[in-house]
């Protein structure tokens, strides 16, 4: 096991009827900026619940944060924070709204001249403006971690950011919100969370057995709950399992003491930046070709995954490992998610040169747990996914 | 899944060579009381490492905190805290030293007249004096939770305490300290951690599958690592698995959203108070008779445990459940830990009346996940353990 540090101070409220807790967690004298997305929270009643809970607070609203939270939009919110002396942020939404709020938390206290540097130069956020979360869409785990991904459509860029100042102070996870989420987004959430676990797990045997087993537990749970929640998104027990699995998939715990990969995300982000494909679907596109291309490095862990998660007990290591990839792709297909880029866009052949150009321009040296996947390798992985 | 709140702000440093981190975590102007036990830290070199790391701090020492941290001893430390204007506590030890430090953290800021009330009246600690931990003995999980158990030999009492103010600010977990721990204490640590998981898991099926699987992961890991660490306590990988499993067994995560039992602990504490038997061994004594006495309530979960952890795939629910109990007792025996009270003391027949008297005097209504185990039931459970 590798040395590690772990601290996750976010307070979780999990369960039905807890949205009113925002009023006890936000300081009484706070001036709150409530951030949300395209307005689904108005239709499903969460907006009313939050507004009612905040009735004794001074609240300014900022709606319209898009999927793949857009830098230009967030700058408008930043103006409001500065001009109206906002002291507390409340994200009411899924990963995009939460990530956008994290950018604002950082930017609000940033002392440099250009807030884009936070993203482009990877400046770590030690202290941000305090914020809380009301989660409306399980998927990214952003509600209990300190990372965010922000997009800039102008330059077709998508960068990560993070730091210990970016943990939500609290997050309210009411699983019953899933009743109003469309199937497409539920499927995305399952694939997103599942791939989060894969990126932290699918490297090589490290002897970190407890982390492995917890990662396998989360994946097993997502596989089991997927057909239940896809069939009936009002099943409360399935809602709970789905939501808590997504949070546990990326709250830092399973990545401690182990190497991690994250190449699928790095490549996937480029596909979203170029084509606007849903984040989770880009992960589904890249997973299989990445694992097949880097098969020799990953086959032992793939075989362990085959045995423990997919219950494949026959065959040698190579055979089990290949079956694990096939089974995972079949799982994604069962959710209505395709795994070939050409199934999403006619312009798929633009992908490899676009990504090669970006990665070389940024001086990207190597992806993956061994940091040895070059831009040339990435071209092959992307072409295998066509 | 039941509604829950979860917040665990303790910062963990896990790995070799991290004891020097105490210097970066304790505020520069702190006046530190360093607390430890019987002096094993002097023999194994940890004392020197901590003192060296604290060379730029004003440090007062208080050694001699015994196993089952004793109220009367702790009052002497409390005098030092008050008379010498201590502002920060550092526990260097195992569960007893950490628990004693938690009592002091609470008592140092307690405004009532009698600090025993914190224990006897179960007063929750919202804010305590800040403290950190250098863990020297994996077992109790106290390094990453907000609970403590304190003994008072004068009255043969042992009470729990807790509250959000009692999380360590940081805990340093260096697995290599296990090289100097005697086999007896390693065996105790394994049984203690294993029983912590059982108390949170062995109730009835609740549909909280992720929590179940993580609990099963920790137990599976302890079963696997036990022979390795008992055979060679210098095996670093085994040290890591053992230490991190003990912490994860009682850091709050697996008890969220599920009912918990804790009857084994409640009864076990009385055996320690009466006979001075090691805490872990009292758990081993009570586990089997508790599960056999409450078999009908617990048999479904016992059968799940049999299948998933002990890999028993044959037999009906009742048969699997009984085998699970037998297998768990055999596991404890394999560590050199006996499971009958008469193997520890000739005066074993004093136990049932002593506990009955205490539980009725305290107005104890019911133990277990259903709060329906009466003092009369406890008598039967204890007698079954003779």
**Helical stretch tally of chain A:** 15
Main sheet overview of chain A: 6 strands, parallel
Largest sheet: spatial strand order of chain A: 1-8-5-4-2-3
The overall pLDDT average of chain A reads 96
Number of domains of chain A: 2
Q: What is the strand tally of chain A? A: 8
Helix content of chain A: 40-55%
For this structure, the CATH topology of the largest domain in chain A is Dehydroquinate synthase-like, alpha domain
The oligomeric status of these chains comes to homodimer
**Biggest interface, chains and residue tallies:** A-B, 41 and 41 residues
CATH homologous superfamily of the largest domain in chain A?
Answer: Dehydroquinate synthase-like - alpha domain
Characterise the protein shown here:
The structure is a homodimer of 386-residue chains. With 386 residues, chain A is of the alpha/beta class. Chain A has two domains: 11-176, Rossmann fold, CATH 3.40.50; 182-384, Dehydroquinate synthase-like, alpha domain. Chain A has 15 helices and eight strands. Chain A has helices at residues 22-25, 40-43, 46-53, 71-83, 95-108, 116-120, 183-201, 209-231, 236-249, 263-275, 279-293, 295-308, 317-334, 351-361, 375-384, and strands at 4-14, 31-35, 58-62, 88-93, 131-135, 147-152, 157-162, 170-173. The first copy, chain A, has a six-stranded parallel β-sheet, sandwiched between helices. A two-stranded antiparallel sheet of chain A has the order 6-7. Chain A is globular. At the A-B interface, strand 1, helix 8 and helix 9 of A face strand 1, helix 8 and helix 9 of B. Strand 1 (4-14) of chain A pairs antiparallel with strand 1 (4-14) of chain B.
């Amino acid at each position: 096991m590798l040395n590690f540090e772990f601290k996750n101070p976010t307070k979780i409220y999990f369960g039905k009827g807890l949205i009113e807790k925002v009023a006890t967690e936000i300081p009484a004298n706070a001036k709150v900026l409530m951030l949300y997305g395209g307005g689904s929270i108005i239709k499903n009643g969460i907006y009313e619940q939050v507004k009612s809970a905040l009735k004794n607070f001074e609240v300014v609203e900022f709606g319209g944060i898009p999927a793949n939270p857009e830098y230009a939009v967030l700058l408008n919110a930043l103006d409001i924070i500065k001009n109206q002396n906002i002291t507390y942020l409340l994200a009411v939404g899924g990963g995009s709204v939460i990530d956008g709020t994290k950018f604002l938390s950082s930017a609000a206290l940033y002392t440099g001249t250009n807030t884009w540097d936070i993203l482009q130069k990877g400046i770590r956020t030690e202290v941000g403006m305090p914020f809380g979360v009301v989660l409306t869409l399980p998927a990214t785990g952003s509600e209990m971690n300190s990372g965010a991904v922000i997009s800039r459509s102008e330059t077709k860029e998508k960068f990560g950011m993070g730091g210990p100042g970016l943990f939500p102070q609290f997050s309210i996870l009411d699983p019953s919100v899933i009743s109003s989420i469309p199937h497409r987004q539920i499927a995305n959430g399952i694939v997103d969370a599942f791939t989060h676990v894969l990126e932290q797990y699918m490297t090589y045997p490290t002897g970190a057995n407890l982390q492995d087993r917890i990662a396998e537990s989360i994946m097993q749970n997502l596989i089991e709950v997927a057909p239940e929640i896809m069939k009936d998104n009002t099943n409360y027990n399935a809602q709970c399992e789905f939501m808590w699995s997504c949070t546990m998939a990326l709250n830092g715990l399973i990545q401690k003491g182990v190497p991690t990969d994250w190449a699928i995300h790095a490549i996937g982000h480029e596909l979203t930046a170029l084509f606007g494909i849903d984040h989770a679907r880009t992960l589904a596109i890249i997973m299989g070709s990445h694992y097949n291309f880097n098969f020799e490095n990953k086959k032992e862990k793939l075989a362990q995954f085959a045995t423990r998660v997919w219950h494949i007990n026959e065959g040698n290591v190579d055979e089990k490992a290949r079956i694990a990839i096939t089974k995972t792709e079949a799982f994604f297909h069962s959710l209505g998610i395709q795994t070939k880029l050409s199934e999403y866009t006619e312009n798929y052949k633009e992908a490899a040169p676009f990504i090669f150009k970006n990665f070389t321009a940024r001086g990207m040296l190597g992806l993956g747990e061994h940091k040895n996947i070059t831009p040339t390798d990435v071209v092959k992985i992307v072409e295998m996914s066509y």
